[in-house]
Amino acid sequence: MPMTWIAAALAAVAATGADVGFTRSPTAEHGPDGVRIRFAVSRATDVAVAIEDGTGRVVRHLVAGVLGPNPPKPLTPDAFEQSILWDGTDDLGERVVGAAGRLRVRVSLGLRPRFKRFVGHTPRDLGGVRGMVVGPKGNIYIIHSFGSQHPLDGSASIVVLSRGCRYVRTIAPFPADIPDARLAGLKFIRRRDGTKVPYVYQSETRSFLPGLGDLPSQTPIVTTDGRFAFVGVQEGPRPFAQPGEARLTVIRTDGGTAPGGLLRTLVHPLTDTGAGLALSPDEKTIYAAGVRAGTHPAGPSHNFTCEYCDHPGNVWDHTIPVHCVFRLAWGDPQAKAYIGNPAKAGDDPKHLNHPIDVATDRDGNVYVADLGNNRIAVFKPGGRFAEPIGQIEVRAPQRVRVHRTTGAVYVLAGRKELSVVKFESVQTGREVWRRKVYRSRRAFIPIRRPAMALDDRIDPARVWISRPLGYVEDRGDTPGARRDLWAENRAGPRAMASVMEMSLDRPRGLLYVNNRMRYDVTTWKGESFKLPGGRMWPNSTPASAAGRFAPDGNYYLMLGTTRARVLRFGPDLKPKPFAAGRDIEKNAPGGAIAGPARDHGQGHTADARGNVYALWKKFPSTPGNHYRAYCLNKYGPDGRLLKERLVDASIPGLHAVRVDREGNIYLTVTVRRGKSLLPPGLEGQAPDAPTDPDAVNGVNMYPMMYGSIVKFGPAGGEIREGVGGIRCNYGVGRAIDVRGAEWIAPGASVVTGFSSPKGRPGTVISCVCETPCPDLDGFARVFYTDAARARVRVVDTAGNTVTAFGTYGNADAVGRGATIPLWWPQAVAVGDREAYVGDRLNRRIVVVSLDYAATETARIGQ
Fold first, then answer.
1. Which end of the chain has fewer CB atoms < 10 Å from its terminal CB, N or C?
2. Are residues 483 and 598 in the same domain?
3. Closest CA relative to residue 295, chosen from 312, 307, 311, 313
4. Among 670, 656, 669, which residue's Cα sits nearest to residue 774?
């Protein structure tokens, strides 16, 4: 009986060892039909075969994929020996001429991505500051937020700066090398290779700690024994950050969890704000002020205008001030009102009106920033209620701190124009000096108040402020120099913005990032770029502008939220209007492909012949389609519609169209094959239901984060109930068929946009704004992100998994060899020698060398 392919592969591995090599070196011989390329390998592996010119540039990507029963054509199934015919043309079908004797075939075995470098790695360059406090040794602990796709869905990190403003470390998310024993109480996902990645508690804000999402402004605390505490607001079951349960959240200053558990005292059952915290001198008692109460359960709120900032569509529900200061001990189950009446405002010595911050002095007296009464109210602690001592009148106090040696009181005051004000003491109430530090066009909304911290263990003392980030020195009777760390950071090396989209202009070696920057990938010199025409698209926002270089060498831009259109630009970024296109706006370059809005993301591309593929939202909804259903249309190089609904879907969640040179279509779609709501490897680790007994508020969003890469042939297909084909599911388990697909590769995330009919089982609606950005390389291998497992997956054109690369790591992780640290990979761009991974939350690009276990070449003679 002949040996099976699997048996032969195992025998080859045993005979040759764990690594792979050639048993027959590549040869290239001319024949009547072209160049015959032959080689043989030692065991089962993936291969890549390309034709290079004399400079090493690839002129033809012949094939790349996994050997076995189903390799990409023209590889021979179940064979270690391979024979491939090259017809003498390049990737565009043009005959390669004038290169006799200078061409060679390169055959590579076993793709082994390796770390090469970071681009834009500057963790000292911070996002929006949500809170800060000075630790016992003078380090400044800062909570900052970044990476938002739209308002209020940012991610948070906690970093430590030295007193001299040097970056020290990141403690949230926690370091990758911290022992499991130091992370008690946190959940993890174990990958099949044995490594672990943090559990995602809040998908809309990408949080690895419960409650640490797009954190409301607040004042955290640090203890002398190394505990860091803040008030985390737990995300509810609907999309976006929103009012929820607020608990004291405690970690250690090395990033680990503290003894006694992560989540402690319940501060409020429903709020949209954090709290200003203060410690008693013995560090046993905590005071909290600035909490707001929700007036009704959190729910969808896209159709109202925020009362604070007149911003339509603000997703935070209405809350009202709580007119008291709470007191709690580290082990208390719930905070209790201590000063004031939670439900009743007042201006007498025993009542408060919208208190928003609190501090203590060396004697334990409690200082309250009483915003509604324009004062700092001071109380002597003791017993069940605090005893009033006095007050300092100051207009619109936002934050308050007290010097533990001199008793001086520092107040950050103002509604639109902020000033740091120093008062001699509560006894005299004398204003010593005032320094203006910031001016805003509008008053601060409750969840975005400025932050302040005090370093009183040095002389002169430093008053840290968040707007702009820096500090003011106290030189006695006058304010000293103000250090503007925000300006310093922007004058020096800049952090990469949160990378959402990338596109590589392969012939010129230019990487376009977020539609704002481009880099020469040989020198990594970056520059901002602007498309010609000035203010061409006044109805567009950065989140709704996605640019892509296509195989035809042109740059395509999809713009718009209500009047979407695709525009074409040449390699020089000069407009190349579509002859049959439409003028959407009088000052646009004209000749645009127009259609209903597709919201955000990489919803378009073009093939090598200039045909354009664009995803459109079918709006308004039509019979037989769910809310925000999508389709893919195909247009000719002149902009004329060639095929409407080339891929038609009854659901939303079609993302990132890519097309290979054969016309095959690759889409990232919010479906999973079969009935499982989770991709392989997550079963038993993440609940396959919308509820999670271990997650705060019972929310589990893993089914909402995962979809698949779907390959359709040039004829397209359909995604709809009851059409036959491959049985799949979407949302929280609703059945859907995918007809016309050649294969479906699992594990693509983050892929949002699930929707089920209202009132039907499995109803869940999630935003379509956060979209993945995969890429096809020259061989049409798909590189796509598995963000929730901190890696990038690679599949060949036959749907076989080639490899996966990436490990979890925060901003302090060091890349080396196969260790490629990622926090939240969002976008990928691929060249012939390197892949570029946009790490959205580490705010950097990771350059990965596409190495192989073995590579040999053979010269192609005349």
1. N
2. no
3. 307
4. 656
Per-residue DSSP letters for 609-620? T--EEEEEE-SS
Query: Rounded to an integer, what distance in angstroms lies between the CA atom of residue 644 and that of residue 632?
Result: 7
Q: Among 113, 143, 170, where does a domain finish?
A: 113
Residues 700 and 764 in one domain: yes
User: Which is more confidently placed, 833 or 625?
Assistant: 833
What residue numbers bound the domain in which 584 lies? 502-772
Residue 740 three-state SS: coil
- Residue 830 is assigned to a structural domain of this protein: no
Residue with tokens 């911050």: 357
Quote the tokens at residue 675. 């009935």
| 542: phi then psi, degrees, rounded to nearest 5 | -55, -35
Q: Cis bond leading into 566, ω under 30°?
A: no
61 in a structural domain: yes
Q: Report which of 666, 540, 516, 543 is spatially closest to residue 600, judged by C-alpha positions.
A: 543
Alpha helices in 482-624 (DSSP H): 485-491
Summarize pLDDT for 829-847 with one digit per residue, the tens. 999 999 999 999 999 999 9
Per the confidence metrics, is the pTM higher than 0.85? Answer: yes
Residues 17, 46, single domain; the answer is yes
Separation CA 660–CA 777 (nearest Å): 9
| 657: its two tokens | 């169209």
Q: Indicate the average pLDDT of the chain.
A: 87
Which domain-ending residue is among 772, 798, 826?
772
Identify the bridge partners of residue 798 per DSSP, sorted by sequence position: none
Check whether residue 348 and residue 212 sit in a common domain: yes
| 464 and 453 Cβ atoms separated by less than 8 Å | yes
Q: How many CB atoms lie within 10 A of CB 242?
A: 25
Asked if 91 and 157 sit in the same domain, the reply is no
Query: Does 175 share its domain with 29?
Result: no
Q: Which residues have CB under 8 Å from 667's CB, separation 6+?
A: 632, 647, 654, 655, 656, 657, 658, 709, 710, 712
Q: What is the pLDDT of residues 160-195, one digit of tens each?
A: 999 999 999 999 999 999 999 999 999 999 998 889
- Is there a contact between 749 and 785 (Cβ–Cβ < 8 Å)? yes
Tokens of 365: 């007296």
Residues 526-560 have pLDDT tens digits of 888 877 643 444 334 444 466 889 999 999 988 76
Radius of gyration of the chain (CA): 30
Task: Check whether residue 209 and residue 356 sit in a common domain.
Answer: yes
Instruction: Give the Cα separation of 243 and 298 in Å (integer).
Output: 6
Does the pLDDT value for residue 636 go beyond 90? yes
Say if residue 87 is in the same domain as residue 159. Answer: no
Asked if 72 and 798 touch (Cβ cutoff 8 Å), the reply is yes
- From residue 349, alpha-carbon distances to 124, 277, 376 in Å are 43, 21, 11
- Assigned token pair, 318: 């209405």
**Best CA proximity match to 799, nearest among 737, 858, 755, 744:** 744
pLDDT at 304 over 50: no
Residue 269: the pLDDT is 87
Compare 510 and 702 and report the one with higher pLDDT.
Answer: 510
Q: What is the pLDDT of residues 238-260, one digit of tens each?
A: 555 567 789 999 999 999 999 99
